[in-house]
Amino acid sequence: MSGFLGVLRRDLRLSFSGGGEVLTLVLFFIIVGAIVPFAIGPDRALLASIAPGIIWIAAFLAMLLGLDRLFRPDRDDGTLALYRMADMSMAGVVAAKVIAHWLTAALPLILASPFLAMILAMDGPTFWRTVLSLLLGTPALAAFGAFGAAITVAIRRGGLLAPILIAPLCVPVLIFGVGAIAPLGGPDQASSAMLFLAALSLMSLALSPFAAALAIDWGEE
Amino acid sequence: MIALGEHAEFIFAAYAGVFVGLGLLIGWIVYDSRRVRARLETLGDKRG
Amino acid sequence: MSIDDTPKMSWWNRLAHPGQFLAWTRPLIWPLAGVTTALYLLGLWFAFFNSPADYQMGDTVRIMYVHVPTAWLSQFVYAAMAVSALGTLVWRHPLADVSMKAAAPLGAAFTAMALFTGSMWGRPTWGTFWEWDGRMTSTLILLFIYLGIVALWRAFDDQLRAARVVAVFTLVGAVNVPIIKFSVDWWSTLHQPASVFRADGPTMPGSLLTPLFVMFFAFTLLFVTLQLLAMHTEIRRRRLVTLERRAARGDTL
Fold it and tell me: Which of C44, C120, C121, C249 has the most B C-beta neighbours within 10 Å, making it the best mutation to test the interface with B?
């Protein structure tokens, strides 16, 4: 348990002190959201109807962008090799890193989402549903992302490969994430989407550390 | 050949596309096999 | 009477040895290719000369004879890859790596053909080449997964290490594919009225089933043949890499 907390603390400290990477990610998220009206036009009704999708896509892209720093710096400076020798299981390390990744790459985006909601003309209830669906759905994105980063960590030029591998697997998260906000099929459908989203997050959080640890162990051998 | 009705071009395109695709696939696999075997032979491998 | 107690190789062990596998399956290639060709010719004859038009779909039903087998293969090849991935991870079967690597581009090709024939069928039936219907959408995502796997194989230099990492990804993908299918179905019924024509709706009469079955076996046997050939090539390529390395070190061969 102390090893788990140690990994978590180390990752948090590194990403908050190391050159403002968290802020860059938040900035990316906001710019992607803010650039859409330039492509689509400033029609408030249209923007309001697609705003949940825009926020989800922006969060999705921002989280994929942050994947490369999950394991690669650790591998480059040898920390990953030390983790593998430690008596703590690799799955525990990955779980700590998934939580750290969520805290540094997802939570700041959710905190910044009111700004996007405002400029995209979202109304109050939709905004709160968006925050709730992001809170429920981003853990799954973090878990899948950690798996993708673990798969590609042994490849020297694997930076772009992880998003390509992970994006198809994340389709259900996007579907249920947006489905939980915009009740096209009525409120019943939205709340069932919310439940599916929570189930996806729980399942991927529980399984991905093991899969990622397996990939790291076998990729490094 | 029987008449294919009003949508003949789509039926024809589907079959042509699939068989061109299969041809390319078979061609690539056979080419790859030949190439690897030829290189093995130049290295003097006896097991084929 | 002497008892022969030398250890016999079981068929499993014999298959596990790449050289033995080559020797055993090489004679199969040409007969398989012959049967496949015959089945294709028979299937084409049935499809164009000896089967009626469907009373509902008309002549476009003939597209089904190439569409259904490729769509089946798009999923069957993934299942074969997932079983091979298990073989790599659990039994460390040396041929499982080879089979996994050979199957990935084949699966991608069949999936692309299924999408192509599906859209050729969709244009006259739905009036559009692409419809965001559950079946087509999840096939498209499956194609992306296949292409990702091919890209992952190519990104590694060391193929033994690649095999294990790809196996983990293939199995995670296998767990995910049903979830993706479910979510996409949920999503497409939400966005569309239920008027979309369902391909499996009307049951087919026997006269339409005959060409379908012949084509189905033709495509499946073609996959088996190509898979064997690609596996042979992969085994030889690994031997080639070893030999080239040895030659580069200056050893005598």
Answer: C120
